[in-house]
C-alpha cells in the first residue's frame, strides 16, 4: 500500500502543501474513498519517519434520509400547503396525501392553513396566506451544501429533533512531513532470492520489516475437548496408582444400587423428585439379587451387623424405581458386591470417571449433567490415616499439595472427610473433594469380611478443570460452541 | 446442609468468651461445622429486597453456621453452645431426666381414626420454663429447622407446642371430617372450618407447602383437650387458644406423624435442648400416650444407650495409638460419656438421647477421630498391591479419540438428555420406534428422554457454530441409552463414534 498510487499522490501533495493536509479533504479532492487515504497514511507511517499523522475528529452535520428527501421535495408542511387549491380541500382527502398527516399539523401551527369545520361535506382546509417560504427546506439545503455553520444552534437542534439532521463524527488525519520525508519511496523487498545473494544486490535493497504482531495462519488441526483432556489425565493418575477401572457404561440405575445398597434411607431428601431424575419408561428395575436385597431391607429397617438401623418400613417398590444415576458410587457398590462374591477375599483398588445426573434448574453454576471421579480401596486394616495418605498422593499428582481435612457427613461413609486445598489465586481454602470409609451397614450385607475396610473418595471433573483453565463456570464446555 | 442462624454476641455470651471471626471459623472447622456467612438482618433484607426495605432492620451480627445433616442436636443456639462447651471441656454434658409429676400425668389418647392418615403421636411437658424473647425465638426456630430436616417438611413428623395453662387434659388425638373441625387457628381472629382453612392457606407462602399432606383425605387429624378446645390440626396449624408466648411457664409438646422412630427422636431433641430453661434444669415431665389398641407409652423416651467398643478397634480404624483412657476422654468431649471397663481395653460408651445419629460403632470411631483432630492423624500409604486394568471400552475410546483428533476432527461433548423431537421427529423417526428411555419429571423439554444417538448433539453444535469458517469437522465418542426389553433393564450397550464432516 505504501507504494500504491494513493500513497504516491499523497506524498506529492504533501510536498507541495504548506504545513500539512487533511485526509478527508484529500480524499474529496482525489475523488477516492476516505478509507483508501487512511490506508495509505497508515502504511506510510509504518515505514518510519516519512510522515507524521495526527488523529483528529471532526463533527459534521449531515442530513438523514428523510432530511434528504425534504431537501429535494420540500418540507411536509410546504407540500401540504401547495396541494391545497384556492377553493380548499377536504380534510379527509388531504390526510390521504403522502405528506398529509405530518405536514398538516405543522402547517396549522405555522398558520399557513386553516380548517373550516362547518363546511357542507366535512371539514375543509383553506390556505391562509398566498405563499410560503419553505424555511426547513432551505436550511436543509444549506447543510447539504456544507454550510451548516450558517444555521443557528437553535435551528440545528430543532431539525435534529425532527430527525432531519444528525451529527456525524469524522475521524481524519492531519498529515505533515516527517523528518525523513521524501516523495519517492522505494519499493520494499519481501523475498530474498538466490540472485540477490549471488549478485550481492541485497546489500542495497530495502527489505520490508517482519511484523511479529500479525496473527498468522492457524495450522489445520483437530482438537480434543478440554474437559475430556482432564479426564484422560485423571485416568492416567489412577492407573499409575494401581487402580482398576470400573465399568460405568450405564447411565440408568435402579434406586436399589444408587441408594439402598449404599445405606441411604428411603426417606432421604436426595431421593426427592426435585433432585433425582426418575424414569417414566421403563419405570422399574426387574432384576435385583433378591437375597442381597433382603439383607439390605433388614439392615435398613431393623438393624443388624452391629447397627441399630434406621427403624422405618423399607419398601421394595421404592428400591425398584429406575433413575438416572446421581453418583458413580452406585458403580462402586456393584463392584464391591462382585468382589465380595469372590472367595477368598483379595484386596482391590477401583476407580471410575463418568457422567452423573441431577434434576436441577440450570444456571451459571449448576448443570444437570456433570462428571464424577471416584476412587475406592478395599483391604484389611485400612485406617483414616491411609485414606489421607492416598488422598495426598492423588492430589499431589494433580499439583495440589496443601491439604486439610474436615469432618463431614455422608449417609454411606463414617468417618467422612471433606478435603480442602489452599487456592493461591483466591487466597482461601476451597473444597476439592469428599471422602470417607464405607459404613459396615453397606459392606457387610454384601458379604465382605468383617475386617475389610473400604476407603473411598470423590470429586467432580469440572472443578479441577475450572482451576486449570481459570474458568469461573463449567457450563461453557457443554455449550455447543 | 442445614444452616443455623445465631446472634453472634448471644453465642459468645453463652460460650463465656469472645472469638475473632477467624478463631471461630477455626473452631467450627475442627468440630465439623462451617461458618458459612457473617451477616445481619439488615444485610439480608438489603440483599433480597433492596436498601429501602432494609431501613430500620437490625444490624445485630448474625453467624450462619452449616451443621451436618444428621446432627439434630446442633440445630439451635442452645445445642451448638452445649456441643462446643463439652468439646472444649468447659462443661460436663448434662444428664437429661424424665420425671413423673407429683399430680396427675398428662395423657394423650389416640383414637383409631388416625390410623389411616397419621397414626403416631408422642408428647411431653416442659414444666416451669422461663422464656426470654431470644429463647422464645430460638424455640420456634428449632421447630422450623426440625420440620425442614428430619421431619421431611412435616410429612413424617409435625410438632405442636402449647401453653399448658390454657388447656386441660386429657387430650384426644383423633381424625375427623374436615367440615366437622372448627376452631380459631393461630393468629386469626375468628373460627373457621378445616375446609375453609385449606382454602385460606392456599395463598399463605409458608403453609401452602404442607396442605398436600392431608388435602383430599376423608378425615383430617386434630387434637382436642377435654373441653373440646382444638390444640392443633397437624401438620398444618395450631389453634390460637393454646398459643405460646414469652410468658408461658408450662409447655405441652405433641409430635404427630407417620414415622414413629422419627417422632420420638424429634421430641427428644426439643425437650433436651430447651429443658435447660426449666426451673429444674434438664428435667422433662413425662406424658402418657395411649394407642388405639390400649397400649400405653410414657414419653419422652430420653433413652441412654450403652455400647462397648474395644479401644484398639478405635485406634486401628482411625490410625492412631491412644491409651484407652485418652480415647474415653476424647469421646466424652463429643458428648459420648465414656469410661474404661473390664480388662482395661474396653470402653463403655453412653449414647445420650441427643445423639440419635450414633447407630453403629463406626459413628463412635468418627467422633473419636474428630476429637483427636483429623489433621493430627498421621498419613500412611496402604500396602495394597494391585495391578491396574483399564475398562476395555474406555481404552478403545481413548485410542480412537487421539486418532480422530490427529485426523483433524474436533471433539465435542454434548448432553445425554434431550427432547423427544431431537431423537425422533428431527431425524424423521417416530418416537416409539426409537426404543428411547423416558424421564418422568423433567424440568424442561430439554430433559424428556435420554439420547439414542449422538447425532442431535453434534448437529446442535454445528448449528451453534455456523458463523465459523468451514470445514467443520466434529466427533464424539460417548454413551447412548437404548431400552433393552429382554433384560427389563436399560443399558448403554455401546459407544458409537459419530462424526460429522461438513
Automatic annotation (TrEMBL), chain A:
Query: Where does the UniProt entry say this protein principally localizes?
Result: cytoplasm
Q: Where in the cell is it found?
A: Cytoplasm
- Broad enzyme group: ligase
Q: GO terms for biological process?
A: phenylalanyl-tRNA aminoacylation
Occurrences of domain Aminoacyl-transfer RNA synthetases class-II family profile (ranges): 229-467
UniProt KW 4Fe-4S keyword: no
Q: What is its EC number?
A: 6.1.1.20
Q: Write the record's keywords in alphabetical order, separated by commas.
A: Acetylation, Aminoacyl-tRNA synthetase, ATP-binding, Cytoplasm, Ligase, Magnesium, Metal-binding, Nucleotide-binding, Phosphoprotein, Protein biosynthesis
Q: Which GO terms describe its molecular function?
A: ATP binding; metal ion binding; phenylalanine-tRNA ligase activity; tRNA binding
**Domain of life the protein comes from:** Eukaryota
The record's similarity note reads:
Belongs to the class-II aminoacyl-tRNA synthetase family. Phe-tRNA synthetase alpha subunit type 2 subfamily.
Name of the protein in question? Phenylalanine--tRNA ligase alpha subunit
Point out the gene that encodes the protein.
Answer: FARSA
TrEMBL record, chain B:
Q: Which Pfam families match?
A: B3_4, B5, PhetRS_B1, tRNA_synthFbeta
Q: Which PROSITE patterns match?
A: B5
Among the GO molecular function terms of this UniProt record, one is: RNA binding
Gene Ontology BP term (one)? phenylalanyl-tRNA aminoacylation
What is any one of the record's Gene Ontology cellular component terms? Answer: phenylalanine-tRNA ligase complex
- Which cofactors must be present for this protein to function? Mg(2+)
Q: Does the keyword Aminoacyl-tRNA synthetase apply?
A: yes
Compartments, record wording: Cytoplasm
Q: Primary place of residence?
A: cytoplasm
What the entry lists under InterPro entries is as follows: aa-tRNA-synth_II/BPL/LPL (IPR045864), B3/B4_tRNA-bd (IPR005146), DNA-bd_dom_put_sf (IPR009061), Phe-tRNA-ligase_IIc_bsu (IPR045060), Phe-tRNA-synth_IIc_bsu_arc_euk (IPR004531), Phe-tRNA_synthase-like_B3/B4 (IPR020825), PheRS_beta_core (IPR041616), PhetRS_B1 (IPR040659)
Enzyme class (EC, first level): ligase
Domain B5 per the UniProt entry, residue ranges: 302-379
Name the keywords, alphabetized: Aminoacyl-tRNA synthetase, ATP-binding, Cytoplasm, Ligase, Magnesium, Metal-binding, Nucleotide-binding, Protein biosynthesis
Q: What is its EC number?
A: 6.1.1.20
Give the similarity note: Belongs to the phenylalanyl-tRNA synthetase beta subunit family. Type 2 subfamily.
Q: Which NCBIfam families match?
A: pheT_arch
* Identification of the protein by name: Phenylalanine--tRNA ligase beta subunit
* The organism of origin for this protein: Lynx canadensis (Canada lynx)
Lineage, opening ranks = Eukaryota, Metazoa, Chordata, Craniata, Vertebrata
Amino acid at each position: 500500500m505504501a507504494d500504491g498510487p494513493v500513497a504516491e499522490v499523497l506524498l506529492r501533495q504533501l510536498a507541495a502543501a504548506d504545513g500539512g493536509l487533511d485526509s478527508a479533504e484529500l480524499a474529496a479532492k482525489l475523488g477516492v474513498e476516505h478509507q483508501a487515504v487512511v490506508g495509505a497514511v497508515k502504511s506510510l507511517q509504518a515505514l518510519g519517519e516519512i510522515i507524521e499523522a495526527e488523529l483528529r475528529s471532526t463533527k459534521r452535520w449531515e442530513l438523514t434520509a428523510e432530511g434528504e428527501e425534504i431537501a429535494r421535495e420540500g418540507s411536509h408542511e410546504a407540500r401540504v400547503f401547495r396541494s391545497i387549491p384556492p377553493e380548499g380541500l377536504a380534510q379527509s382527502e388531504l390526510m390521504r396525501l403522502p405528506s398529509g398527516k405530518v405536514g398538516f399539523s405543522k402547517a396549522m401551527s405555522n398558520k399557513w392553513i386553516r380548517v373550516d369545520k362547518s363546511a357542507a361535506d366535512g371539514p375543509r382546509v383553506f390556505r391562509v396566506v398566498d405563499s410560503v417560504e419553505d424555511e426547513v427546506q432551505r436550511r436543509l439545503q444549506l447543510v447539504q451544501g456544507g454550510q451548516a455553520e450558517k444555521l443557528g444552534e437553535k435551528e440545528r437542534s430543532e431539525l435534529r429533533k425532527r430527525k432531519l439532521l444528525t451529527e456525524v463524527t469524522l475521524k481524519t488525519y492531519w498529515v505533515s512531513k516527517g523528518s525523513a520525508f521524501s516523495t519517492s519511496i522505494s519499493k520494499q523487498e519481501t523475498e530474498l532470492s538466490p540472485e540477490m545473494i549471488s549478485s550481492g544486490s541485497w546489500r542495497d535493497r530495502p527489505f520490508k520489516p517482519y511484523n511479529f504482531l500479525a496473527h498468522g495462519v492457524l495450522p489445520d488441526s483437530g482438537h480434543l475437548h478440554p474437559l475430556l483432556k482432564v479426564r484422560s489425565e485423571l485416568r492416567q493418575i489412577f492407573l499409575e496408582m494401581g487402580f482398576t477401572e470400573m465399568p460405568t457404561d450405564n447411565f440408568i440405575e435402579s434406586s436399589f444400587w444408587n441408594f439402598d445398597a449404599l445405606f441411604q434411607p428411603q426417606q432421604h431428601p436426595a431421593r426427592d423428585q426435585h433432585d433425582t431424575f426418575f424414569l417414566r419408561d421403563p419405570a422399574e428395575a426387574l432384576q435385583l439379587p433378591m437375597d442381597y436385597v433382603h439383607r439390605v431391607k433388614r439392615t435398613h429397617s431393623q438393624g443388624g451387623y452391629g447397627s441399630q438401623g434406621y427403624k422405618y418400613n423399607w419398601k421394595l417398590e421404592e428400591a425398584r424405581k429406575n433413575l438416572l444415576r446421581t453418583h458413580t458410587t452406585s458403580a462402586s457398590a456393584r463392584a464391591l458386591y462382585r468382589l465380595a462374591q469372590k472367595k477368598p477375599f483379595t484386596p482391590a483398588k477401583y476407580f471410575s470417571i463418568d457422567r452423573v445426573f441431577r434434576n436441577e434448574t440450570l444456571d451459571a453454576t449448576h448443570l444437570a449433567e456433570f462428571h464424577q471421579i471416584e476412587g475406592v480401596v478395599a483391604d484389611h486394616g485400612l485406617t483414616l490415616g491411609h485414606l489421607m495418605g492416598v488422598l495426598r498422593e492423588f492430589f499431589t499428582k494433580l499439583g495440589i499439595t496443601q491439604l486439610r481435612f474436615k469432618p463431614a457427613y455422608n449417609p454411606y461413609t463414617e468417618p467422612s472427610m471433606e478435603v480442602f486445598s489452599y487456592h493461591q489465586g483466591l487466597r482461601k481454602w476451597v473444597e476439592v473433594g469428599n471422602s470417607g470409609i464405607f459404613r459396615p451397614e453397606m459392606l457387610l450385607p454384601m458379604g465382605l469380611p468383617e475386617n475389610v475396610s473400604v476407603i473411598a473418595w470423590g470429586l467432580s471433573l469440572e472443578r479441577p478443570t475450572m482451576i486449570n483453565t481459570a474458568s469461573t463456570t463449567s457450563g461453557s464446555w457443554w455449550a455447543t460452541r | 446442609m442445614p444452616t443455623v442462624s445465631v446472634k453472634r454476641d448471644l453465642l459468645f455470651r453463652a460460650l463465656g468468651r469472645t472469638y475473632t471471626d477467624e478463631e471461630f471459623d477455626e473452631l467450627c472447622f475442627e468440630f465439623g461445622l462451617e461458618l458459612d456467612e457473617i451477616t445481619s438482618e439488615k444485610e439480608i433484607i438489603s440483599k433480597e429486597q433492596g436498601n429501602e426495605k432494609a431501613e430500620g432492620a437490625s444490624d445485630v451480627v448474625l453467624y450462619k453456621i452449616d451443621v451436618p445433616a444428621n446432627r439434630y442436636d446442633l440445630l439451635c443456639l442452645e445445642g451448638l453452645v452445649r456441643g462446643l462447651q463439652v468439646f472444649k471441656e468447659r462443661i460436663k454434658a448434662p444428664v437429661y431426666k424424665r420425671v413423673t409429676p407429683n399430680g396427675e400425668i398428662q395423657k394423650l389418647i389416640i383414637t383409631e381414626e388416625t390410623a389411616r392418615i397419621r397414626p403416631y403421636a408422642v408428647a411431653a411437658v416442659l414444666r416451669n420454663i422461663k422464656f426470654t424473647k431470644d429463647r422464645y425465638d430460638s424455640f420456634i426456630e428449632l421447630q422450623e429447622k426440625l420440620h425442614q430436616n428430619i421431619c421431611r417438611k412435616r410429612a413424617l413428623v409435625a410438632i405442636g407446642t402449647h401453653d399448658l395453662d390454657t388447656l386441660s387434659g386429657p387430650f384426644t388425638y383423633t381424625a375427623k371430617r374436615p367440615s366437622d373441625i372448627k376452631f380459631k387457628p393461630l393468629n386469626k381472629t375468628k373460627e373457621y372450618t378445616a375446609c375453609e382453612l385449606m382454602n385460606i392457606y392456599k395463598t399463605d407462602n409458608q403453609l401452602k407447602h404442607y396442605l398436600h399432606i392431608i388435602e383430599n383425605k376423608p378425615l383430617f387429624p386434630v387434637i382436642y383437650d377435654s373441653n373440646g378446645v382444638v390444640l392443633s390440626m397437624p401438620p398444618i396449624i395450631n389453634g390460637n387458644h393454646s398459643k405460646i408466648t414469652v410468658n408461658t411457664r408450662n409447655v405441652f409438646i405433641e409430635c404427630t406423624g407417620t414415622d414413629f422412630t422419627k417422632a420420638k427422636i424429634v421430641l427428644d431433641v426439643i425437650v433436651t435442648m430447651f429443658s435447660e430453661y426449666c426451673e429444674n434444669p434438664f428435667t422433662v415431665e413425662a406424658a402418657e400416650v395411649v394407642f388405639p389398641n390400649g397400649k400405653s407409652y410414657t414419653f419422652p423416651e430420653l433413652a441412654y444407650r450403652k455400647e462397648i467398643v474395644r479401644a484398639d478397634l478405635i485406634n486401628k480404624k482411625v490410625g492412631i495409638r491412644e491409651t484407652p483412657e485418652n480415647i474415653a476422654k476424647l469421646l466424652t468431649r463429643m458428648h459420648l460419656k465414656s469410661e474404661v471397663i473390664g480388662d482395661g481395653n474396653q470402653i463403655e460408651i453412653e449414647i445420650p438421647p441427643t445423639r440419635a445419629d450414633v447407630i453403629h460403632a463406626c459413628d463412635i470411631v468418627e467422633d473419636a477421630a474428630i476429637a483427636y483432630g483429623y489433621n493430627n492423624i498421621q498419613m500412611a500409604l496402604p500396602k495394597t498391591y494391585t495391578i491396574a486394568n483399564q475398562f476395555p471400552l474406555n481404552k478403545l475410546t481413548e485410542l480412537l479419540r487421539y486418532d480422530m483428533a490427529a485426523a483433524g476432527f474436533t471433539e465435542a461433548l454434548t448432553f445425554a438428555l434431550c427432547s423427544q423431537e431431537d431423537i425422533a421427529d428431527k431425524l424423521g423417526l417416530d418416537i416409539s420406534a426409537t426404543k428411547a428411555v423416558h424421564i418422568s419429571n423433567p424440568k424442561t423439554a430439554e430433559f424428556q428422554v435420554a439420547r439414542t444417538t449422538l447425532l442431535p448433539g453434534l448437529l446442535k453444535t454445528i448449528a451453534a457454530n455456523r458463523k465459523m469458517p468451514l470445514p467443520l469437522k466434529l466427533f464424539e465418542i460417548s454413551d447412548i441409552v437404548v431400552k433393552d426389553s429382554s433384560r427389563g433393564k436399560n443399558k448403554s450397550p455401546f459407544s458409537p463414534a459419530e462424526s460429522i464432516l461438513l
